[in-house]
Amino acid sequence: MTTLENSIVINAPLDRVWTILANLAELAAYDPTVATATVTTQAASGLGASRDVTMRDGKHWFKERVSAFEPGSALAFELTSCNFPIASLSHSYSFSEGAGATTLRQSMTYTPKFGLLGKLMDKVVIRRTSDEGIKAFLSGLKTHAETAPPVTDSNGSAH
To answer: Which of 3, 27, 39, 148 has the most CB atoms around it within 10 Å of its CB?
Structure first.
């Protein structure tokens, strides 16, 4: 099992960052590695909501669902299937706010497929490419939260 920890300071209020991250359909608007994100449940947000994601490379995809949902406090996702060399993966987010900015922390834990070969692949390539992807995702989220027009949450409030 591998755990990657990353954080970023976003110059936007916590409720705006939360609203963007919690809206499953919005992922492709800010993650430069994602081509499409399609919500597969009736609700586009909340505990149990899920999405299918197609990567921009045209080869990779994954499906995930929200496994923790505490507005403004904690958000987590769990992969339900994918075509990456990953047997299991979860990623969680925590938030803190101060002086008009939000610090977002992400922790991603995964287990590679293929046993010993997978562990070697993790050391050689999976860990590095996963961390690069997370950093691109966080950078895109930062830019989107700081510059895009406000988004509307499920209650009709703009953030």
So the answer is: 27
Residues 6+ apart with CB under 8 A from 68: 47, 74, 75, 76, 92
Q: Structure tokens of 115?
A: 């046993």
Number of C-beta neighbours around residue 106 at 10 A? 21
10-residue averages of pLDDT along the chain (159 residues): 97 96 96 97 95 96 98 96 97 95 98 94 96 97 92 62
* CATH code, residues 2-147: 3.30.530.20
Q: Which amino acid type is present at position 52? A: D
User: How many other C-beta atoms are found inside a 10 Å radius of the C-beta of residue 117?
Assistant: 11
Mind giving me the DSSP string for 43-111? Answer: -SSSTT-EEEEEETTSS-EEEEEEEEEETTTEEEEEEEEESSSEEEEEEEEEEEEETTEEEEEEEEEEE
Can you say whether residue 53 is alpha, beta or left, with left for phi > 0 and alpha for psi between -120 and 50 degrees?
beta
pTM of the shown model = 0.90
